[in-house]
């Protein structure tokens, strides 16, 4: 799995994008930075939490637009991350779990 933080244009938020090889999906997460006393949900946006949900890196651009610019360079890096892991598909155990959950792409 790859995980890359990209610059966020809104203070107090963090944006992370990447490729999740076992789930066969690109993902994006926008979270609020919290202190220890804040017990509210920090997740503002989460894409790619379901197997096969985001098949193209470009599909993250629009949902992230209010928070960050996913540039051509970011997209190229995400594609390279996926290509680097192409020969490392989900393990047999991961495939079994995805099958049982009905989430295999």
Can you give keywords for this protein?
single chain; 105 residues; alpha+beta; 3 helices
Question: Can I get a quick summary?
Answer:
The protein has about 100 residues and is of the alpha+beta class. The protein is built from three helices and four strands.
Description:
It is built from three helices and four strands. It has 105 residues and is of the alpha+beta class. It has one domain. It has a four-stranded antiparallel sheet with strand order 1-2-3-4. The chain is globular. It starts with a strand and ends with a helix. The mean pLDDT is 88.
What sort of overall outline do the alpha carbons produce when their principal axes are compared? globular
Structural class of the helices, strands and pairings?
alpha+beta
Q: What is the rounded Rg?
A: 15 Å
Instruction: Give me the oligomer status.
Output: single chain
- Please give the share of residues in helix: 25-40%
- Please provide the ordered H/E string of secondary-structure elements: EEEEHHH
In spatial order, strands of the major sheet run: 1-2-3-4
Low-confidence stretches: none
Number of strands: 4
What is the typical, i.e. mean, pLDDT? Answer: 88
Query: Total domains, how many?
Result: 1
N/C terminus separation: 17 Å
**Proportion of beta-strand residues:** 15-25%
Counting DSSP H or I runs of 4 or more residues, the number of helices is: 3
What's the main sheet like?
4 strands, antiparallel
């Amino acid at each position: 799995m790859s995980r890359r933080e990209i610059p966020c244009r809104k203070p107090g938020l963090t944006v992370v994008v990447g490729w999740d090889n076992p789930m066969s999906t690109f993902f994006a997460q926008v979270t609020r930075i919290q202190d220890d006393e804040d017990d509210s949900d920090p997740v503002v946006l989460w894409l790619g939490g379901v197997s096969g949900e985001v098949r193209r890196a470009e599909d993250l651009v629009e949902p992230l637009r209010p928070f960050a610019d996913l540039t051509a360079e970011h997209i190229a890096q995400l594609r390279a991350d996926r290509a680097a892991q192409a020969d490392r598909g989900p393990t047999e155990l991961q495939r079994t779990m995805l099958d049982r959950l009905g989430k295999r792409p």
